[in-house]
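User: Structure with arginine, tokens only please.
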Amino acid sequence: MAQEKLWGGRFSQPTDKFVEEFTASIQFDKRLYSQDIRGSIAHAEMLGRQGIISAADVEAIVGGLREILDQIEQGTFDFSVSLEDIHMNIEARLSEKIGEAGKRLHTGRSRNDQVALDIRLYLRDEIAEITSYLDLLVDSLLFQAEKNINVMMPGFTHLQTAQPILFAHHMLAYVEMFKRDKGRMEDCLKRVNVLPLGAGALAGTTFPIDREFVADRLGFPEVTRNSLDSVSDRDFALEFISAASILMMHLSRFSEELILWSTSEFRFVELSDSFCTGSSIMPQKKNPDVPELVRGKTGRVYGNLMALLTVMKSLPLAYNKDMQEDKEPLFDTIDTVKGSLKIFADMIREMRVNADRMLQAAGGGFSTATDVADYLVRKGVPFRDAHEVVGKVVRYCIDEDMTLEELSLAEWQLFSMQIQEDIFAAITLEASVNARSATGGTALERVRQEIERARSGK
Ligand code: ARG
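Assistant:
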């Protein structure tokens, strides 16, 4: 049913049906309903307090808005496309319900500052949820790190075996990334958490409003300082999607490793059946769908960032309708990040670690070659010469099809007379790992300390 337009006064022809649908945002901005109502209640209370509307009007408005909130939550509210967006759907319903008083709600306010307020309120709530999901994921990583504290694996560079490390050390690398992601979210929140209401359409309002009161009611520590900027700024949303893109990039790297580690060639980990699917033709298959999908979804979040940057590019001040296009990329980013984090937190907690397989791989690929070079340096050989010597030893082992551990002292001494009986103890996997004991290294004691540190929230 076509509704009377709230801005219909200057128009003589009705809006074309298709144009109406094309320009409406109610299909997606209805999810701002509770923020819109919260904002309107604070605004009405301020109008009453300032004597701009009567106390009776405030009471009617607040009561009416609460009823609307209930209706929306119970699914009995009828959203109308001809009322364009969530702001006008709620306001029109309010006026239907309570008459005159409802029509006074929009005094000293515009949809331009109203929508800016709603998005900020919404994003503020969602950032809090996202940081709590990040905490859950970090918790799962620490759980695996602790549970497998003695498990060794090969560390890679260029995806070639490089040096042995603790599996826990590898998990803690992701802890660092997700802690930085949390920091970026918290930093972005500072700029989200500023009240734009009071900017009016663009220049402020002629009514004696009290923006600080509204800020206080809604829990904003600050108010914006320029009305033009207040209604045309979406930096906070861009910052959020940028931080989300970096977060997804981290998840995609982790996904890639889990996919690789789950192959029959690696077999480092096994993902729980509930996070995988089978193949309709190949009976042996168990596919790592969840990490694959998260890796894929990274693309849509980057796409959302590009979309909003492009929407904002070259926009003249102040509000432009283009900015209605901010919502879908923003909402999609929030949904994608929350879903990915939640599923990862659960999947990592349930992941099974194949310690034997990792240990076996850790000893392959001459992973302790650097330790031999370091050993020679401790015996007084300059590092470059030591590197050359060990290169020759590795060549010898490849030709003889041997590992470094299998060489006899006599064989070692073919390459350097500095090598003594103590070489054998110096090149075990444990010795290699535990020798790297400076801050940030993979030594067992270091890793234990870092787990403690991360647990204590530092
Ligand atoms: N639905 C609009 C948006 O999302 C609300 C603001 C509209 N303002 C206007 N002057 N048309 O941006």
